Amino acid sequence: MKVVELLSSVPGIGKARATLIMERRSISPTRRIGGLGQLQLKALQKEITVAKVDPVRGNLIVMSGPGGVGKSTITNALRNDPRFWVSVSATTRDPRPNEKDGVDYHFYSEEKFDNLINSGEFLEWAEFAGNKYGTPRGPVEEWRKIGKHVILEIEIDGARQVRATDSSARLVFIAPPSWDELVRRLAGRGTDSPERRAARLALAEQEMAAAGEFDATLVNDEVNELIAKLVSLATAQS
Ligand code: ADP
Ligand code: 5GP
Fold it and tell me: What range defines the domain where residue 88 resides?
């Protein structure tokens, strides 16, 4: 039996969600159950359990904070938690060496991005440091419908747009323990040229000033402690 047939037959999943789950777990559409590895089987069991026991609409969590504060580190950890789905944004910026298309971002040309803006495909979009970034609307809704809490890791303008259209969204600002530590993290990551880093730091100052607009501010000192706080805030019933 094919994986897609099995998943589609589970109440609360269906064909469209089965396809999304398989994409997320990197399972090809033609794969049969017998061909799955142990880890993939375990992952699917988790997905099925969550879909069955948690039919309540998931929350929308918007996470913002200055570049280098640790947002990607946090979202990478949440990707392994079956209660959450981390939105994959579209961007016109070039991929960094360790980034994969469709996993870290959908890397689009300016033209394709503009077409998607014009056809209303983005929940929000904004320009940041010379590039465009946007959240594809469809998957956010699909995953919330099956009870996943959806995490958006986006900049401030985007967070404001989400707040304007969805008053139930939970806006969380991630702050560094200190300015010096932020500078150290940005330099330590080593993914930006010195010019780009300077531009990011200038933007970071403006971003820090917007923290008061968020529902909560969490300081990313010890990352596991921060994740525990974020999870509790994100999963709390409203
Ligand atoms: P962002 O996505 O906000 O731009 P990253 O997740 O890329 O930030 O983190 C920037 C750098 O800081 C990375 O090298 C990361 O390993 C490091 N980092 C993240 N969180 C912490 C933390 N709590 N303590 C120390 N270093 C951290
Ligand atoms: P980076 O280039 O470092 O990956 O991201 C730059 C900034 O763009 C970060 O502040 C990140 O949160 C933000 N960003 C990423 N995806 C989106 C998105 O879909 N919408 C908006 N508004 N900002 C985004």
Answer: 60-235
- Regarding the beta carbon of 153 and ligand 2, being less than 6 Å apart is answered yes
The 10s digit of each residue's pLDDT in 105-164 is: 999 999 999 999 999 999 999 999 889 999 999 999 989 988 889 999 999 999 999 999
Residues 95 and 185 reside in one and the same domain: yes
Specify whether 26 is located in the same domain as 107. Answer: no
pTM of the complete model: 0.80
Any alpha helices (H) in the chain, and if so which ranges? 3-8, 14-24, 38-53, 71-78, 110-118, 137-145, 156-165, 179-189, 194-209, 223-235
- Are 122 and 153 members of one domain? yes
Q: Please report, for the domain that includes residue 33, its CATH number.
A: 1.10.8.50
The protein residue with its alpha carbon nearest to ligand 1, atom 15, reads 70
